[in-house]
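pipeline/complex-builder :: batch 7 item 3
reading input block
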Amino acid sequence: MSKKILSANFDLPDSHALRVYEETGGYRAIRKILGTPGDEIIEEVKKSGLRGRGGAGFPAGVKWGFVPKDTDQPKYLCVNADEGEPGTFKDRQIMEQNPHMLIEGILICSYAVGIERAYVYVRGEYVFQIQRLAAAIAEAYGSGYLGKNILGSDFNLDVVIHRGAGAYICGEETGLIESLEGKKGQPRAKPPFPAVVGAFGCPTVVNNVETLSSLPFIINEGASAYAAIGTAKSTGTMLFSVSGMVEKPGVYEEAFGVNLVEFIEERAGGVLGGKALKAVIPGGSSAPILTADEARNTVLDYEALAEAGSMLGSGAIIVLSEDVCIVKALQVITRFYSHESCGQCPPCRHGTYWLARIADRIENGRGEPDDIDLLLSICPEMMGRTICVLCDAAAMPTESYVKKFREEFEEHIRLKKCPMDGAPRLLGIE
Amino acid sequence: MDKQVAEKIAFNEQSERRYQEALEMYPTKEAALLPVLWIAMDQFGALPTEVLEYVSSRLDLPPVRVFSAVEFYTMFYREPRGRYHIQVCRNLSCTLRGSEQLMGLLEGKLGIQPGETTEDGNFSIETAECLGSCGTAPVMRVNDTYYEDLTIEKLEKIIEGCLGGRSSSELLG
Ligand SMILES: Cc1cc2nc3c(=O)[nH]c(=O)nc-3n(C[C@H](O)[C@H](O)[C@H](O)COP(=O)(O)O)c2cc1C
Ligand code: SF4
Ligand code: FES
């Protein structure tokens, strides 16, 4: 059975309205904690085991604990709503269907850490979602949930929407901060981490939309109730974005620990057109690919996917059927990383460019026999040696595609063309 | 820049109000750069040199800072686009669901390549990376509106609707 925490309200009429949120128990959590010392809230969130849903899976409470307590500087929260990882489309669902749940999460985090200003960094394309969120923020101000002396307490919080302008790298937390400050979104070297030196030189928490949206449940029901869902180390539920060659693509909430292929079959209707499963990309385009057999033998949680040599990432599951060409898939994603590299680090700037060029020429029938080993020799040179992990995010999947589906690459080079003629056709052309 | 042009480039009342609001959102003036560029895009439709010089003078930033930021972000345009600006996602989930064919159809129908604008100024087309709508692939945006689960019939309807001069939100209505 699927457990609904984040998506419980999604199907209600006017689920985005303050009235509906309040009627279903909304803003109870913030009332409950006002007056409690922030440290106790941080402990509670640590106990819940909640991990970041933006990609890295870092425990939220632990991150908040890094923010210095005795500082004269203001502290900031940056809400990461950049949602750029290819395959991911769940934060927009939260902003569209239940923006008040996010606002209450922002309140809880800000109260616990002692933050008075939160910036929500929303990707520039999400115009409708920005309107929805802005309307909800206005409602929250109107009802005393935001602004000065929230619900009669001495807690103040302002929430500001900051619209991005099209750059995947601004989803990386320090790229996001640079962009917020009015600069190019080029990541900063760490340390110092944002918790100590973040936005405008001040201590800053950066959390994903879904991470924050999980907080009201944790406060209302208690950390142990949350930790009882899922597995021992991957607690709670996650919104999985399922796309690609499946019958029913969409966002599905699930407790951690379910079998990956059973999940695809039971929730997303299985492989499109009853075709055979070829491979699954389990955590967004930055995640190494799993063969169908590997996917059958793994469950959806942070540990299991790491053990399978991939990662849970942002929970974006891209399903590839037997009629998908793996070389084509590599061509598309390497082009993406090459396009999105911010160019600061030579291994990333050059590495992503060459991966894209080589994948492109193999797919287009112009590959040389040496190209496969060339790809494999570039990847290790790109890992673990740059300012941010975009470079690794390009190299890791590339290595996995080539190693696991080497014969498809060889066939392209031998035949001097794509045996599958590139991508599947637009549905309805055929 | 001649004086007449310089005088024409100024925020209108609405933009000026938004500009003042933007300044209040951040602890530094510089941080208002992205919101102010959005305000400028909304009023002027694009960011030609004289607009960028205006923005840099309003924010007390060296012009080079403003220019390099504009170059960095893909949603800021230096030149005007078509009345209907179409962005087709070319990332993985959309490619799997046929976005290359979709782009091919658009190119054929409009007689332009990605990055170009039709002579009458009605349409421009461009590729985009993942638009965060992969569950309804293939996807494109026309101006600020998403069109999802696209098929050939839907595409034809959208283009015809544009030619009929309807606003993009009405196109599928
Ligand atoms: C290249 C790159 C892109 C990223 N894009 C996003 C994004 O779009 N959204 C997001 O929440 N996190 C993204 N992240 C992860 C953030 O850096 C950061 O870990 C996250 O916002 C922390 O929030 P969390 O702990 O709640 O997950 C990205 C990381 C990298 C390296
Ligand atoms: S790894 Fe790539 S994207 Fe990250 S900072 Fe370096 S050049 Fe920029
Ligand atoms: S791949 Fe097209 S919207 Fe994500």
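note: Chain A has three domains: 18-227, 239-321, 326-415.
queue -> next item
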